[in-house]
């Protein structure tokens, strides 16, 4: 087993255990992996695998949860809130396991993000418009990596790479409401990929022993 990679079991997608990303000040470590499934005509179709990364220093902010089991961590929404609020860089690496049109990908993401912003401000609308423009008219092939990187609670970098680690940033999304809604989509109380949250909780429980 190559310790530099971790395989997401359902999709067999391999994630690097540590990454250096554009715009980040230091390497990020893999906390967990999962997948997203959509149901079409009662058949579950896997759309992408996802890996959650964070700067290692995030663990120094999580002493309050040390010694808890993975199941306890998964139920504790305040843990993931603390990870979001912690002043460390975090990134979600989405790897597509099928070809998808950029607009379709954005529409699905927007469908999850928008209801989480109760009264969008002009700043939020502008951030969502910037976000949308990254995906419009862009075919996303199987194997494409989309990185959503939270520099802090207000700024999210979007990087798209046909394979592996990107070399540049495609867009910067500047809105605290969009940044927190996006984090909530994946790690909040009703995540789009329960397997990712479960795996991240396992990784956190092991690191916080």
Helices and strands in order, then pairings?
Blueprint: E1 5-7, E2 14-16, E3 18-19, E4 28-40, E5 43-54, H1 70-75, H2 77-85, E6 90-96, E7 100-101, H3 102-113, H4 122-135, E8 139-140, E9 145-150, E10 155-161, E11 171-174, H5 176-187, H6 194-207
Antiparallel strand pairs: 1-2, 3-4, 4-5, 5-6, 6-9, 7-8, 9-10, 10-11
Helix tally equals 6
CATH class equals: Alpha Beta
Binned strand content = 25-35%
Q: Give the SSE order as H and E letters.
A: EEEEEHHEEHHEEEEHH
Number of E-state strands = 11
- Note the main sheet: 7 strands, antiparallel
Q: What sort of overall outline do the alpha carbons produce when their principal axes are compared?
A: globular
**Share of helix, binned:** 25-40%
Would you identify the regions where 5 or more consecutive residues have pLDDT less than 50?
none
Secondary-structure-based class equals alpha+beta
Looking at the structure, the CATH topology is Chalcone isomerase
In whole angstroms, the N-to-C terminal distance is: 24 Å
The overall average pLDDT, rounded, is 95
Total number of distinct structural domains: 1
Q: Strands across the major sheet, in which order?
A: 3-4-5-6-9-10-11
CATH architecture annotation name: 3-Layer(bba) Sandwich
Q: In angstroms, what is the radius of gyration?
A: 16 Å
InterPro entries: Chalcone_isomerase, Chalcone_isomerase_3-sand, Chalcone_isomerase_bundle_sf, Chalcone_isomerase_sf
Domain Chalcone isomerase: 12-204
Protein name: Chalcone-flavonone isomerase family protein
Family: Belongs to the chalcone isomerase family.
């Amino acid at each position: 087993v190559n310790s530099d990679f971790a395989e997401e079991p359902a999709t067999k997608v391999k994630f690097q255990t540590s990454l250096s990303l554009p715009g980040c000040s230091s390497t990020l470590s893999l906390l967990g992996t999962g997948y997203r499934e959509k149901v079409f005509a009662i058949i579950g179709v896997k759309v992408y695998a996802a890996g959650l990364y964070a700067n290692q220093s995030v663990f120094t902010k999580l002493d309050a949860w040390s010694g808890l089991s993975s199941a306890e961590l998964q139920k504790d929404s305040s843990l993931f809130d603390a990870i979001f609020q912690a002043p460390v860089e975090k990134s979600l690496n989405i790897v597509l396991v099928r070809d998808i049109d950029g607009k379709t990908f954005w529409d699905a993401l927007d469908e999850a993000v928008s209801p989480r912003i109760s009264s969008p401000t002009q700043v939020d609308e502008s951030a969502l418009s910037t976000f949308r423009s990254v995906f419009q008219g862009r075919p996303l092939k199987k194997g494409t990596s989309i990185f959503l990187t939270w520099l802090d609670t207000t700024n999210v970098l979007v990087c798209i790479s046909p394979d592996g680690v990107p070399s540049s940033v495609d867009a910067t999304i500047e809105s605290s409401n969009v940044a927190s809604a996006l984090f909530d989509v994946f790690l909040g109380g009703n995540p789009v990929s329960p397997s990712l949250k479960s795996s991240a909780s396992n990784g956190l429980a092991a690191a916080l022993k």
